[in-house]
Amino acid sequence: MSVITVERIKLFSTRSPWWCMIVAAVLTIGFAALTTGFLKGADEQRATIFITQPGAQLSQMVMMVMAALAVTTEYRFGTIRTSFQAVPQRTALLLGKTAVVAFLAGVVGLIASFGAWGIGNLFVSGADLSIDTPAEWRLLAGQGLIFALSAVIAVAIGILIRQSAGAIAILILWPLLVENLFNLIPKVGDDMAQWSPFANGSSFLNQGQDFGLAGSQGDYAMGPWLALLYFAGWAAALLTIALISASRRDA
Amino acid sequence: MIEAKGLTKRYGATVAVDNLSFEVKPGKVTGFLGPNGAGKSTTMRMILGLDTPTSGDVRIDGQHYRDLRQPLTKIGALLDAKWVHPNRSARAHLAWMAASNKLPKSSVDKALEMVGLTSVANKRAGAYSLGMSQRLGIAGALLGDPEILLFDEPVNGLDPEGIVWIRTFMHRLADEGRTVLVSSHLLSEMALTAEELIVIGRGKLIAQSTTTEFVDRASGTTVKVRSPQLDQLQGVLNQQQLVTRIEDVEDQGKVLFVEGDTTTDQIGEAAAAEGIVLHELTLQRGSLEAAFMQMTGDSVQYHAHDEIAAVTDVTAVPPVSGAEVAAGPKEDN
Ligand SMILES: Nc1ncnc2c1ncn2[C@@H]1O[C@H](COP(=O)(O)OP(=O)(O)O)[C@@H](O)[C@H]1O
Ligand SMILES: [Mg+2]
Fold first, then answer.
1. Is residue A178 within 8 Å of residue A129, measured between CB atoms?
2. Which residue among B7, B11, B52 has the greatest number of ligand 1 atoms within 8 angstroms of its CB, and so is best to mutate?
3. A108 to chain B nearest CA, in Å?
4. CA distances from residue B136 to A156, B78, B84, B89, B109 in whole angstroms, order as listed
5. CA–CA gap between residue A101 and residue A73 (Å, rounded)
6. Which residues of A are less than 8 Å from B122 in CB distance?
7. Which of A40, B31, B157, B292 is most solvent-facing, going by the fewest CB within 10 Å?
8. Domain B2-215 class?
9. Are the beta carbons of A9 and B95 separated by less than 8 Å?
C-alpha cells in the first residue's frame, strides 16, 4: 500500500495538519471543561455525558478543514501534478489520501470525545458520568466514525472545488447554516432538514441520549444506525463523484 | 522512445496543440523548440498523462503514461520547479516521491547528492532560490534512475552559473545514454544542448531533424574565400552557376562570398583544378535566432512579447554562447 505511505509522508512533513489536529482535540476537551467546570449543586447532579460533548462539532469542522486543505494545497502548489506524475492511477492515489486523512480524523474524534468525557468526570463529582448504556457508547465512540466520514466528505469537496477558500466555505456553511435554513422553507423544509447529511450524522450520535441540562432535541428521520448509514452514503457518493471528476479532468 | 500521433489539445476556443506527430529518439538529447505559447508545455503535460488530449495520443515505449506502473523508473520529468510544497523539506518531498514508486530510501540521498543539495536537504523548499528549486526538480526527475527525461524550459530565469550547470548536466545525461527531451524558446540554447530538434509553432509541427540540418536549412550558408587570384576564381565559379559577389572587407582586402547551395569542398576543388591559390576558405552560418524567427514567422503568436523575452534571455546567457552560436556572423544581410 505505497499510496498510504506517500500520503502519510506528505501529511506529516508540513506543520499545519499537526496544528489542526491539536486544535481539534483541545477544542472539544476545553469546551467540556467550560460546560462542566462551573456546575454547582442541583445543576451538577443533572450533568450527563452529553453535556461534555458540545465542542465536538467545532472540532469536527477543524478536521474537515484539515482534510480539505490536504487536497486543495496540492492544487495550489502544483504538487498534485507531481503526485499524478508519480502515481498516474489517480483513483488509487486519492483513495490513499482519503484513507489516511479519514483515519487521522477518526483518531482525533475519539481523543476529543473520550478526552472531553474524562475532563467532565474530573469536574463533576455529584453525578454519574460512567458509560453504561449503548447510547452513551455510541455518543463517544461514534464521534470517531462521524469525524472520519466528515473528513471523507471534506476530501471529496476539496477534489471537486480544488481551491481552499471555496472548499472551506462550503464545508462550514453547509452543516452550520444551510442545513438549518432548510427549516425556514414552508412545507418541505422540515423534511429537507431531517434528510440533510450532517443532520443525520448528529442524529446518529444524539438519539437516545440523556440531554440533561441541554434540553430536548428535534425529530429524527430514521433510527441511529440507519442515520449513520445514510451519512456514510453521502460520503461515498460525493467521493465517487470526486474521483470520477479527478480522473477525467486535466490535473 | 516517445511517440506522438496526431496529438491535439483544445482549451475552449484555443487550440494549444494541433495535430502534432513526432518521435523522440532513444539515447539522444532532443530539443523541443517553439516560441512562447507554441504548445510545448501542453504537449509535455500530455506526454505525462496530466492533460488528456482532445484527440490523437502519445505513448512511451508503446504505452500510455497512465498505464505505467512505477513510472518514475521509466521517465523522469521536470515541468515546473515550483511544484513543491513550500513548507516541506526537499528530503521529505523526494521521500514521498520515492515511496510512491517503491524506490529504496537510498535513492533520495543519491539524487540529492547528484544535484548538490545534500547540505540543504532538510530546509523548507520555499526558502530555495530558483536555481536550487530547479535542482530539486531535477533530483525528482532522476530519482528512479529513468532512461527517459523530460525538462520544460529548464534554464528559464536562471543566472549564468545556473544555466551553465544545467547545460553540463544535460550533456552528462546524454553521455550516460539517456533519452532527453528538453524544451526551449531559444534556438541558440538548443544548438548548444540538443542533437535532434522538434520545432513547433502555434501547436503545429514545423520541422523534425538534426540540429545541424535544421540550422543549415534555416539559416543558409555562405562560403568566404580570400585569394590573390580572386577575379579568375569568380569566373570559374560563375561558370558553375554559383552566385558570387566580391566585397571589400576591412583589414582583409577583397573577399569573395559564394551564396546558396554550395560547399567548401566544391570550391576548393574548382580552385585546385585551375591552380588557383587560396588564402582562406570558410563556411559561414547566419544568425540562428534570425533563422528561427523566419521559420516560425507565420507561427509566432506573441511576437512582441517574444522579442522582449529573447532580449532578456540573451543578456542572461554568458557571452561565450554568442560566439559559439553565430559562428562567424554573416556580413550585415
Ligand atoms: N490550462 C489551460 N487553459 C487554457 N489555455 C491554455 C492552458 N494551457 C495552455 N493554454 C494555452 O495554450 C497555448 C499553448 O500554451 P503552452 O503549452 O503553455 O505553450 P509553451 O509552453 O510553448 O509556451 C497558449 O495559448 C496558452 O495560453
Ligand atoms: Mg511553456
1. no
2. B11
3. 23
4. 30, 9, 9, 10, 12
5. 14
6. none
7. A40
8. alpha beta
9. yes
pLDDT tens across the length of chain A (251 residues): 799 999 999 999 999 999 999 999 999 999 998 888 888 777 777 788 888 888 999 999 999 999 999 999 999 999 999 999 999 999 999 999 999 999 999 999 999 999 999 998 888 877 788 888 899 999 999 999 999 999 999 999 999 999 999 999 999 998 888 887 887 888 888 888 888 999 999 999 998 888 776 666 667 888 999 999 999 999 999 999 999 999 999 99
- The question of ipTM being above 0.95 is answered as no
Q: Cβ separation of B83 and A77 shorter than 8 Å?
A: yes
Single-letter residue type at A206: N
Search chain A and give the residue with CA nearest B92.
A13
**CATH architecture of the domain with range B221-285:** 2-Layer Sandwich (3.30)
**A81 contacts on B by Cβ (under 8 Å):** 45, 50, 79-80, 83
**DSSP structure string for B105-122:** THHHHHHHHHHT-GGGTT
b/e code A184-221 from CB counts within 10 Å (16+ = b): eeeeeebebbbebbbbbbbbbbbbebeeeebeeeeebb
For B149, counting Cβ atoms within 10 Å of its Cβ (0-12 exposed, 13-18 middle, 19+ buried), the class is buried
Question: Could you tell me the residue ranges of all domains in chain B?
Answer: 2-215, 221-285
Q: Are B329 and B287 contacting, i.e. CB atoms less than 8 angstroms apart?
A: yes
Q: Chain A, 226-245: which have a CB under 8 Å from a chain B CB?
A: none
Closest-lying ligand to the alpha carbon of A81? Answer: 1
Q: Is B10 exposed, middle or buried (0-12, 13-18, 19+ CB in 10 A)?
A: middle
- Atom index in ligand 1 nearest the CA of residue A250 equals 1
Which of B92, B73, B109, B120 shows the shortest CA–CA distance to A7?
B92
A25 grid coordinates: 482535540
